[in-house]
Amino acid sequence: MKIYLRASVACAAAGSLLILAFLIGCGNHAASGNPQAAAPPDFNGVWSAPFTPDISKVLGHQPPFTPYAAARFAKEDEIDDPLTKCLPIGPARGIQAGIMPFQIVQTPAVFTILFENQRTFRIIHTDGRSHPKDIDPTWFGDSVGKWEGDTLVVDTVGLDDRTWLDTAGHEHSDQLHLVERFQKVDNNNMKWTATFEDPKFFTEPWSVTLPIARQNTEIMSYSCEENEKDRVHLRRSKK
Amino acid sequence: MKRYRRRLIIVATVLLSFATSVPAHHGNAAYDDKNPITIKGTVTEFEWTNPHAQIYLDVKDDKDNVVHWSVETYSPGKLVRAGWAKDSVKVGDHVSINLIPAKNGSPVGFLHKLVLPNGKELGLQELD
What we know:
heterodimer; A: nine-stranded mixed barrel; 4 helices; B: alpha+beta; 18% helix; globular
């Protein structure tokens, strides 16, 4: 009987130790920041930011122009807007002045933004890769993203200097380094912060933050050239 | 979180108040957005096309001469969100259109609001 009792106590003690070890193990696992421990928030759906044709209005002043950029901006005219020529809208303008909503399709390896505007898209790689060493500039650049808690931090380089940052004519060079933070606020809202760094156009990096809201709609048809009739009416407003 | 959401809404409202230019693919380069006018006439054609739906109408001027106007507006996708449909406007409809006219003085404009024969108004504000 005594032997049986001792065996039972020993078993109970061993069981408790096992449970304790399991709980400690779980705690360490969560604290280690293992990406599998906490799934990133779900951004899937159709979204839109308030149409913001002049980014300096959000900033409260003009961006910190270099003399070169200031001289260019003084002569810039809406008639030269790349969208007027039906060229692609570019990554940041597509979000803050895309005119139309965009859809996010999210998988573990990619975070994709499908713009209704010109039915163009961005692919943001979230599989841990880095930018390629030699990048030929493209309309939406090369984007890699990593999760920081509830926020996707997207780093984009290799951008074609023909896109504008907004309708007002803020430009950039192919040295633009764009860092965006997509932060989920709740199921229907997110906060988007874009930081623009471009030694040719800006003396220092600058940032804007906009709210982005979920839209009760779908991405619809759009084509810039289908029945374009108004280009002939455009008039230059600056000399 | 609630307070944060309210703050976002306030920011959104302030930002929307900045959005004075026509959200078209060509900005305001074609139109005089400071001097909107209203024209009344008979629709001769309604094109439900990208990048802008187009309404053509005959409008009588002060001297009873018929002037053929061409009025553009949003893309069909954006119009659907604002309550329009491809058959919202029919040939022969007598309509009233508030628009911003072309800077070059030609009978061309960008629609802000349309009033149908039955009094129904169609604008550009997206519906929830």
